[in-house]
Amino acid sequence: xxxxxxxxxxxxxxxxxxxxxxxxxxxxxxxxxxxxxxxxxxxxxxxxxxxxxxxxxxxxxxxxxxxxxxxxxxxxxxxxxxxxxxxxxxxxxxxxxxxxxxxxxxxxxxxxxxxxxxxxxxxxxxxxxxxxxxxxxxxxxxxxxxxxxxxxxxxxxxxxxxxxxxxxxxxxxxxxxxxxxxxxxxxxxxxxxxxxxxxxxxxxxxxxxxxxxxxxxxxxxxxxxxxxxxxxxxxxxxxxxxxxxxxxxx
Length: 250
Description:
Elements: H1 5-11, H2 16-22, E1 27-29, E2 73-75, E3 88-90, H3 95-100, H4 115-120, H5 125-130, E4 144-148, E5 154-158, E6 165-171, E7 178-185, H6 198-216, E8 219-220, E9 227-228, H7 239-245
Antiparallel strand pairs: 1-4, 2-3, 4-5, 5-6, 6-7, 8-9
């Protein structure tokens, strides 16, 4: 198994030790570790899903962090202050303008503005993605899941461009044979520099709750005597042992 903790830390703009202390370690790709489109950040991987950072569309003019553009224009209001407050915007403020005013980039979603409304107001596809929105007519970007624990007890997703997600692995048809359950956002881990901050204590509480629920659902295989996510209700044998010893196809 290739440890992806350093790769995750790099994509979260933090230190691998903080990822280990706050979320746990090591981490592996849920879809495996073979060469794939999503293995750019971590080198060769084994058959994993598409990468978490799909490129911007052809109509993207500038990055989400660029200054004011020809979309929404800024007009100085009377009493403008040096810190940028007191401005009046014509059209829809760009993510850069919202950040300049200390407003959440995704806040416009709560005012009923759809991605189409925001694009009409001057937002580019890059702006929409930076706010966690899917541009009109575009497919949602793939979510890349990672697993921790043996057997797997925690799932982490790097979501372009939204906040990271933590979840409990539930046996299913998803990546690595697991579907995420009890999914929760953990935005504070992105760019974290202090693992003892209040935000990281909250992330630890979320993690611990998910791990407790995952462990309560583990069962013991009567053949290999290991904890597993599921066994045959009639025999108590896990899928691996059923295939190896009973000739049952997985």
